[in-house]
Amino acid sequence: MTAGPGKALEDLNARITTCRACARLVAWREEVAADPPKRFRGEAYWARPLPGFGDVEARILVAGLAPAAHGGNRTGRVFTGDRSADWLFAAMYRAGLANQPTSVHLGDGLTLRDAFVSAVVRCAPPQNKPTPAERDECIPYLARELELLPRTRVLVCLGSFAWDGTLRALRVAGVETPRPKPRFGHRAEASAGDYTLLGSFHPSQQNTFTGKLTEEMLDGVFERAKELADERP
Length: 233
Description:
It contains 8 helices and 6 strands, in the order ααββααβαβαββαα. By secondary structure, the protein is an alpha/beta fold. The chain has a single domain (7-231), classed as Uracil-DNA glycosylase-like domain (Uracil-DNA Glycosylase, subunit E).
């Protein structure tokens, strides 16, 4: 169900992958590609912005922070080729949202069912820290993806940056968001128009190695996402 996105999504993806709006991010994504660590030496890096991917009929969208310098920036697919991907897609597989538990490279056969994966910022940022200006430059891409995914109703936000960025994207898309801004937390929920936001700690090594996020906790997020998708019209 991941094949053949609509023409509008294809056009959006073309705009995203050719974007050079943020000079700092352009320089960084190309710099790390030109001088990769030894374990990736000799690989051809994508070194461009990344569009979202998945089922165009998805009811669940997963939003992350940004591609990893040697993950998506290397492989050409968001949440692919790093430890965060290992955790995310294993959980999505257990939830029946992915056909396999791994996401290692573009041609690995991964397809998503009822899910679409994206990010607030589309280029790998230095130290995984985009600036507010870089975030705001990218927000319209996520807003447009939401407009082009008509069945999406549940937004799983991986981390506080994704939570805040998704709320901003909804406002850009013309969706009324709650005031005051709902606070992020693991399993936090907030309604905005036809959408429900569902928070999750990010599956970064900082969280998974320390036990802040466990497999059971991440499984619980996706089980709740499926419940919410069934509740929404």
